[in-house]
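Hey,

Quick one before I head out. I ran the complex with zinc ion overnight. Inputs first:
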Amino acid sequence: MSEISKEYDFKQIEERWVGAWDESIYYFDWNSGAPQYIIDTPPPYPTGNFHIGNALNWCYIDFVARYKRMRGYNVMFPQGWDCHGLPTEVKVEEIHGITKNEVPREEFRRLCEELTAKNIAKMRVTMKRLGFSNDWSNEYVTMTPEYYSKTQRSFVQMFGKGMIYREDHPVNWCPRCGTAIAFAEVEYDSRTTTLNYLRFGSPLGDLEIATSRPELLAACVAVAVHPEDEKKRKYIGTEVSVPVFDYKVPVIADEVVDPAFGTGVVMICTFGDKQDVRWWVEHALPLRQAIDRTGRMTEIAGRFSGMKISECKDAIIEEMRSEGTIYKEEPLDQNVGLCWRCKTPIEILSERQWFVKIDPEEIIETSAEIKWVPEHMEIRLLNWTGTMDWDWCISRQRIFATPIPVWYCRGCGEPLLAEEEWLPLDPNLTGPPVPCPKCGSEEFDPETDVLDTWMDSSISVLNVTGWLSDHKPRYPAQLRPQGHDIIRTWAFYTILRARALVGTRPWDSILVNGMVLGEDGHKMSKSLNNFIAPEEVVEKYGADAFRQWAAVGGSPGSDVMFRWKDVVSGGRFLQKLWSIYRFAAPHAVSSEGTSPNQVDRWLLVELSRTVEAVTEAMERFAFDEAFRAIRSFAWEEFADNYIELVKARLYGPDGPEKRAVQATIYEALEALTSLLAPFTPFIAEEIRMSLAGESVHTASWPEPRKVLPQPEGRLIKDVAAAVRRYKSDRGMALNAPLAGIEVYSELALETADLAGSTSSTVAVKRGRPEIETRAVEVKPQMKAIGPVFKEKSGEIIRRLREMDPKEVARMAEAGKVLVDLGGEVAELAPGAVEIESETLSAGRAVDMIALPEATVLIRTGT
Ligand SMILES: [Zn+2]
Ligand SMILES: [Zn+2]
């Protein structure tokens, strides 16, 4: 065996394995009859940076994938890329100094694809360096025709089932992104705004109204009061006149109006918020759209048209102030809906859009068939589903996305949906191969809207399980790992789509991970300067150390703080493992039929227990518990206890005793590398390969051995540890021989390893030792004597020292110590003396160590 270096060189070893590993061992076998374990891996957005939150999630996935593979499952750990979307469009505009409308649509798309491909390549490198066992034969890229043809076919199929429709309907609109967005993409934030009190003209006397959005006055379509509002009731059914714009709107009654808020009168606009939409529908009110798609005021805003929303607001307030229409202003705390991508306040616009029908019952039913880990995360989905009163708006007014495969007939206006066999296609580039079925016209306009990117990613599970492929479909998948921030989007939409398209739950289990916080406890962000890139950690401590942080940093579901100290201690453990290996490697010999002694058997029991505990924890995705169990076995039981105990046998003569140790060390190292393989794949591979000449990543998960509990071996270990402590407390070298050790217990202990590890002769005896204690010295306590006996103290102390310690001890025990001062007797309280005694066994001085199950006597004299 070649020389093993003292220091663990993580960089050299990890980088060597990244290059040497055969990735095909991680490929899913479509023809295998073994139980499948398909993971619906999140397809990250290809920003070019695989950030630490991704890395945490992927560590979890990799722990599971490697573990399941070793358990004999046919595992698929695919890798997808969720390419489409605004951030890439914006980046392309930035890089090329263009806006998307300055170049042809297809050219712009091509630039987006080019950037995306480059970013994916970068992120793949990081993922491989982190040691993830991805199945690259099942990689998918949502911007490719192969993938988006599936997205388009899913659209056509759901349309065919009546689950997709196109309609004028209020939608959430981001004026900055210039697109509709779904409710799931609206974030709420509290802001302080102003509540303006103003007057609407009426022959019955001005009606006072409070509003935070006077810029929507031009969009006012009605005014509402509570039907039981004594003072306002008389206005119901009349018309009032809108200030500034001077047109009339009806006053309606509605029970939802809160008479205690503002003036108890509400201005209904199309649309200030979701409640406006409800009223608009219930009372069949007209539509007055005052804000356009770019966030500017429309024609109906008269002299304010063309202004930005905020400019218009300022101008209208100014005008109403000067005219006295506003008679009061007060601050108001409000929840404002923001675009989740750019944080711009969203507007609600009525737009012709495509929608997917939502059936909350079906989502809730399906969710109940899925095992949520941790369980409480399901509430987030259920709560969200409970608030659904609009369908899912799936059309977007962007370019870099899956095209909606629809044309509109120029002759009769009828939409023509692509047949599945025509797909993939972009209606902007290709016309339909058939004339209009209604009027026979061959002239069409393409649908220029594109699909929400969640339409791509919500079929990820169907894609990986072989839907619309040459393989026999294998849905549901077994696991969906994902962050809790996308439960109401990715999890929700995936459940909806699996149900709609294939009529089943998408997965058996969903494993929800938390977010990564910076070391300061705040969400990681570049602006807070608490941002860590995985590459930086890998460079300093290696991927195996990084992965240990992920394993011990927290349990799935909870937010996890990034801590350098976890990484550093991960690095220290790698060094410890390396030292264990370096010491043990020359002694590890696999052999059958050896007879392990009590100490060997104790280690094998501990190993077996560890295997059991780790397996059980892995089944619960409790990676922190699993890894801690492995670490404590390796560090404490194997290295600090077992190896210390058996060194003498290892260095002793050849024979059955020595062979038993060698075989035990081999077995422990082999199992340890297997247990470590999911967590620290590099060092586990390095050790296993040199130990056994086989890859640990094609090995099986260890089975717990059927070994009976070994109280003898454990007691020997405890005694040896106690003797080590005894020596170190006395500043003795650990290999310093002692005059003799006697161990009393109820067990028949073997002495060889105990003698070897303590470098002393060891006698083992049954029962408890007969011992006596003998007082050997009296230590007068000046603090107790001085204050009582003042100038006599010196004499008392002198006399005490001359007295027989045994006699003083007897008196102290009886309650008082009498000291003869020559004519006078001083009476001391027992606390005035401290008696030092020695322990004797069979008349010889010993030190005694009392353990719960044994008494250890160490001879102190010769
Ligand atoms: Zn936006
Ligand atoms: Zn037509």
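The chain has 24 helices and 33 strands.

Talk tomorrow,
K.
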